[in-house]
Write a structure and sequence with these properties.
alpha/beta; Rossmann fold; 7-stranded mixed beta sheet; 5-stranded mixed beta sheet; 12 strands; 50% helix; oxidoreductase
Length: 460
C-alpha cells in the first residue's frame, strides 16, 4: 500500500514540475501578454491531476505543443474614410489548433485588439470548441479598428481591405471565421461578398454568422445568449434550483446580452440591469427588452437613452458598479476582466447564487477564486458561452449540405449541446476529485479531447 502511495506521490510531483516548467517557458516567450498568460495559467492550474494520471501527455510534449499556435498571421489593413483620408490598422489571425477540425473562431474589431488579446481568445477557443463535441479546431482574429462612429461605407471599405489579405489564409476546410465584438452580420456580409469576388466561387462555409438570406443559419444570432441561459438552467437544476423569479443582472447589450436576457425572461427571471461601454441602466420593474432591441439593434443608440422611454429607470456612467446591484444571478456578457475581486465580494454580500460567463474571461482570477471559495455556482465561459460556436458549426454543416434547418431544429440541437456540455463538465470534475467545480471540469474535458487526438496524430 505504501508503495502505491509513493508511486502516486511521485506522479503528482512530476506533473506539478512539468506544468510549472512549461508555464515558465510560456512566460519567457510571451512577455507582457497579460491576457494570454492569464488564460494559460487558469487552464494549466486545472490540468495538474491530468498529467499525474497520463504520463504519456508529458512524454509527447502535449502542453508545449498545445500552447503554441500553429500559425500567427499579422497584416496591415489600409482603408479610406468618406473624406478621402487614408487610415492604417493592424489585422490578426491566430490559427491555434486544427487537431479536431478546421480552425474556428470569431473576428473582433475593437481598439483594444492586440497580440495578447487575440492569443488568449484563440487559446480559450480550442477547449470551448472541443467541449461542443463538434469537429472544429480553435482560432481567433480581428483588428484594432473601431466600427463605432463609422459610416456603413467606411466599414465596408475596411472589411474589404481586411479580407483581401485574410482570404489567402481561410477556407471552408482550412479556417472558418465568424463574428465577435464589433463584427455582426453586416461586417460578415461585406467580407463574404468581397471574398466571393476574390475567389470567383460561392464558398458559403468560409464564414459563419452570415445573414440567413446569404447562407447563414437561423438561430445563430441568438445562439450564444440562449446557450448561456440553457447552461445556467442546467447548473441551477443540478442543485435543485431554477431561474423562476430570480433577480438577474446582465452586463453588455450586444447579441449575447440581448438574447441571454430574452431567454432568461422566458424562464421567469427578473432581469433588472444591462450596460454598454459607457454605462449601465437599472430598471427595478424589469428591463423592457423591446426598448433595448430598438435602441441597440435598430437605431444603434447608447443604452443611456433607455431612460427617455422608461423614466423610472436610472442610468449610471461607467460600467463597473453594475455589479453593486443586488441580484441572485449574474451573467457577465460584455468583455474580458470586467468583474474583479471587489465586485465579486459585493455580489456575494448581496445574495448571489450563481454566475455564468457570456463573455470570454469576464471574471479575473481573484473573482473566480472568491466565487469558488464561497460556494457560488460558477459557469466558466468556455462551457457556458459555447452555444455560439456550436451553432456556427451547425451553419457549416448546413452550408456543406446546401440545406437549411428550421429555427426550432437549430434551437433544439443547441439545447442538447448545452445540456451535454454541462453533464460532461460535472462528470469530469467529479472524476478528477473536484466535485461541482465546473471550471476544472471544463478545462480538463476540453483539454483531454484535444490531447488524445494529438497523441493519436503523432508529431505535427
Amino acid at each position: 500500500m505504501q508503495m502505491v502511495r509513493d508511486v502516486k506521490e511521485e506522479a503528482r510531483r512530476n506533473a506539478n514540475d512539468y506544468v510549472h516548467q512549461v508555464f515558465e517557458l510560456v512566460k519567457r516567450r510571451n512577455p507582457g501578454q497579460k491576457e494570454f498568460l492569464q488564460a494559460v495559467r487558469e487552464i494549466f492550474d486545472s490540468l495538474r491531476p491530468v498529467f499525474a494520471q497520463h504520463p504519456e501527455y508529458i512524454r509527447d510534449g502535449i502542453l508545449e505543443r498545445i500552447v503554441e499556435p500553429e500559425r500567427i498571421i499579422s497584416f496591415r489593413v489600409t482603408w479610406e474614410d468618406d473624406n478621402g483620408k487614408v487610415h492604417v490598422n493592424r489585422g490578426y489571425r491566430v490559427q491555434y489548433n486544427s487537431t479536431l477540425g478546421p480552425y474556428k473562431g470569431g473576428l473582433r474589431f475593437h481598439p483594444s485588439v492586440n497580440d495578447s488579446i487575440i492569443k488568449f481568445l484563440g487559446f480559450e477557443q480550442i477547449f470551448k470548441n472541443a467541449l461542443t463535441g463538434l469537429p472544429i479546431g480553435g482560432g481567433k482574429g480581428g483588428a484594432d479598428f473601431d466600427p463605432k462612429g463609422k459610416t456603413d461605407r467606411e466599414i465596408m471599405r475596411f472589411c474589404q481591405s481586411f479580407i483581401t489579405e485574410l482570404s489567402k489564409h481561410v477556407g471552408p476546410d482550412t479556417d472558418v471565421p465568424a463574428g465577435d465584438i464589433g463584427v455582426g452580420k453586416r461586417e460578415i456580409g461585406y467580407m463574404f461578398g468581397h471574398y466571393k469576388r476574390l475567389r470567383n466561387a460561392y464558398e458559403a462555409g468560409v464564414f459563419t454568422g452570415k445573414d440567413p438570406e446569404s447562407g447563414g443559419s437561423l438561430g445563430r444570432k441568438e445562439a450564444t445568449g440562449y446557450g448561456l441561459v440553457y447552461f445556467t438552467v442546467e447548473m441551477l437544476k443540478h442543485h435543485g434550483l431554477d431561474l423562476e423569479g430570480k433577480t438577474t443582472v446582465v452586463s453588455g447589450s450586444g447579441n449575447v446580452s440581448i438574447y441571454a436576457m430574452e431567454k432568461a425572461i422566458e424562464y421567469g427571471a427578473e432581469v433588472v440591469a444591462c450596460s454598454d461601454s459607457n454605462g449601465y441602466i437599472h430598471d427595478p420593474a424589469g428591463i423592457n427588452l423591446e426598448t433595448v432591441k430598438q435602441l441597440k439593434e435598430v437605431e444603434r443608440r447608447r443604452i443611456k437613452d433607455y431612460i427617455l422611454f422608461h423614466p423610472n429607470a436610472t442610468y449610471t456612467e461607467g460600467c463597473a458598479d453594475i455589479w453593486s446591484i443586488p441580484c441572485e444571478i449574474a451573467l457577465p456578457c460584455a468583455t474580458q476582466n470586467e468583474l474583479d475581486e471587489a465586485s465579486a465580494a459585493k455580489l456575494i454580500e448581496n445574495g448571489l447564487i450563481a454566475i455564468a460567463e457570456g463573455a470570454n474571461m469576464p471574471c479575473d482570477q481573484e473573482a473566480i477564486d472568491l466565487f469558488l471559495e464561497d460556494g457560488i455556482l460558477y459557469g466558466p465561459a468556455k462551457a457556458a458561452n459555447a452555444g455560439g460556436v456550436a451553432v456556427s458549426a451547425m451553419e457549416m454543416s448546413q452550408n456543406s449540405m446546401r440545406y437549411s434547418w428550421t429555427e426550432q431544429e437549430v434551437n433544439e440541437k443547441l439545447h442538447r449541446v448545452m445540456i451535454d456540455i454541462h453533464k460532461n463538465c460535472v462528470e469530469t470534475a467529479e472524476q478528477y476529485g473536484f466535485k461541482n467545480n465546473l471550471m476544472v471540469g471544463a478545462n480538463i474535458a476540453g483539454f483531454k479531447k484535444v490531447a488524445d487526438a494529438m497523441v493519436a496524430h503523432g508529431l505535427h
